Amino acid sequence: MIKNEEVYKIGVINKPHGIHGELSFTFTDDIFDRIEAEYLICLLDGIFVPFFLEEYRFRTDSTALIKFEGIDTAERARMFTNIEVYFPVEHAEEDPQDESTWDDFIGFRIEDKHHGDLGEVTDVDTSTINTLFVVNHHGKELLIPAQEELLLSIEKQPNVIRMILPEGLLDLDKVEEI
After folding, report:
1. Residue 56 β-bridge partners
2. Could you tell me the strand order of the sheet in which 116-125 lies?
C-alpha cells in the first residue's frame, strides 16, 4: 500500500480528451518527463493507485495529454475527472535535472591547457546566443566562450573549469587602437 509520505502531488486530471482514453492533465511539476516515469499515482477513493503511462504529449507549459495503459475508451477515462495525480518521492530524488544554472559557475577558476590559470568567473553573460564566462584576469575583464567543444572538464572540487581555447583568442584584447 502506498502511503501519503511516499508521494507528492504534481497535478490534477481535468477531463477525458477524445474517445480513446486520453486525459487532459494540468501539472505543477514536470518530473514525470524529466526522469521518464513509467507510472503516475492517482488518488482514487482515498487510495493511492499507480497507473502505467502508455504515452503523453505536452499541450502547454502546464498541461499535457496522457494515456494510461488499459484505459482505452472515453467512458473509462471519465472516472479520472478531477482526480489528483501524485509522484513517488523516491523517484523524484533520482531527478537528473538538478536545476543548475549558468550562475552556478560563478566562483569557478578557468584554466586553459596552453595558458594556465586565467582567473575566476565573476559573472556569466547570457544576453546573446553565445554564452560567455566573464573572468577577472589580473584585474581586467576577460570574456571566454562557454562552448562545449572548448571544455576539457568541469571539476566541482576544487571548482575548476579546464578548457582548450583556440589560438589567438586571448590575444584579441591586446590589439591596440589605431
Report:
1. 66
2. 140-145, 132-137, 116-125, 109-112, 160-163, 151-155
CA Rg value for the chain: 25
One-letter amino acid for residue 14 of the chain: N
Q: List b or e across 130-165, with b for residues whose CB sees 16 or more CB atoms inside 10 angstroms.
A: eebbbbebeeeebbbebeeeeeeeeeeeeeebebeb
At 101, list the grid cell: 544554472
Chain segment 71-114, per-residue pLDDT in tens: 999 999 999 999 999 999 888 766 555 556 788 888 999 999 88
User: Residue 27 in contact with residue 66, Cβ under 8 Å?
Assistant: no
Kind and range of the H or E run holding 23: strand 22-27
Neighbouring CB atoms inside 10 A of 105's CB total 18
Domains of the chain with bracketed CATH: 4-92 (2.40.30.60), 102-165 (2.30.30.240)
Contact 121, 131 (CB under 8 A): no
43 in Cβ contact with 86 (< 8 Å): yes
